[in-house]
Write a sequence for this structure.
């Protein structure tokens, strides 16, 4: 893809230790490819300082979220939620994320994950921020809580959306955009089969780097510059130019994050 349009990676773990040896080169590759807006989700309190360091180094490009990731909801989850609250009270963030429920790795903390998800949705409403949802093998559990909490104030992104067409429509009904990344390029990714039935207005782009690299990098470390491979695939699916995909999805990201 050759583009002068601005691309937005709405979900990238730039502080990951997988980038420790070449972070500045990785960032430059992304910027050279037109990816100039990076939205960075939190995992738990251990990543907070490295997120702040990243923001200091790239103040015009990097925008931070605050939250507790569901797979990091452990026995100390109440302390971690206090950390989230304390940071939110101290400074501005662009979203509460990534939050949600993940039953792929571990089902033993489901009740705690549900509590943490609800609590952080309520924080998002308090601070009038979007939420960024992590959902893995937990659509029913996530939708149950969104149904309870739904309101005009609740909005955000269903990150790494991998559900069915029906689940996509339901997510959209709760004021969520769908975060589309490398999975759309996979042979068995399935979402490419119905995505053209979803208006592009409901889509934002993401890499989830260093995870979920698109074809032809599948299985390798992902990075934000590979967002152009996602854009190329969406251009084929929607039958419009890569510049149009870039412009519409960046506008959608501005609507969600306010910047």
């Amino acid at each position: 893809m050759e583009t002068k349009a601005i691309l937005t990676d709405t979900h990238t773990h730039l502080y990951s230790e997988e980038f420790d040896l070449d972070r500045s080169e990785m960032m430059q590759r992304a910027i050279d490819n037109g990816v100039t807006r990076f939205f960075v989700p939190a995992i738990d309190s251990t990543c907070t300082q490295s997120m702040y360091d990243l923001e200091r180094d790239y103040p015009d490009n990097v925008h931070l979220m605050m939250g507790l990731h569901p797979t990091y909801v452990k026995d100390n989850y109440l302390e971690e939620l206090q950390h989230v609250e304390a940071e939110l009270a101290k400074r501005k963030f662009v979203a509460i994320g990534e939050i949600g429920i993940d039953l792929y790795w571990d089902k033993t903390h489901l009740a705690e994950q549900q509590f943490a998800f609800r609590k952080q949705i309520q924080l998002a409403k308090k601070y009038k921020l979007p939420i960024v949802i992590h959902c893995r093998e937990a659509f029913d559990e996530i939708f149950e809580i969104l149904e309870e909490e739904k309101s005009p104030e609740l909005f955000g992104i269903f990150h790494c959306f991998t559900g069915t067409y029906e689940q996509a429509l339901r997510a959209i009904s709760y004021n969520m955009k769908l975060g589309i990344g490398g999975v759309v390029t996979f042979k068995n990714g399935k979402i490419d089969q119905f995505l053209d039935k979803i208006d592009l207005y409901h889509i934002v782009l993401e890499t989830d780097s260093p995870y979920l690299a698109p074809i032809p990098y599948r299985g390798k470390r992902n990075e934000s510059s590979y967002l152009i491979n996602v854009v190329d695939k969406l251009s084929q699916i929607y039958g419009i130019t890569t510049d149009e995909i870039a412009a519409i999805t960046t506008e959608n990201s501005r609507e969600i994050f306010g910047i």
About this structure: The first strand starts at residue 7 and ends at 9. The first helix runs from residue 23 to 32.
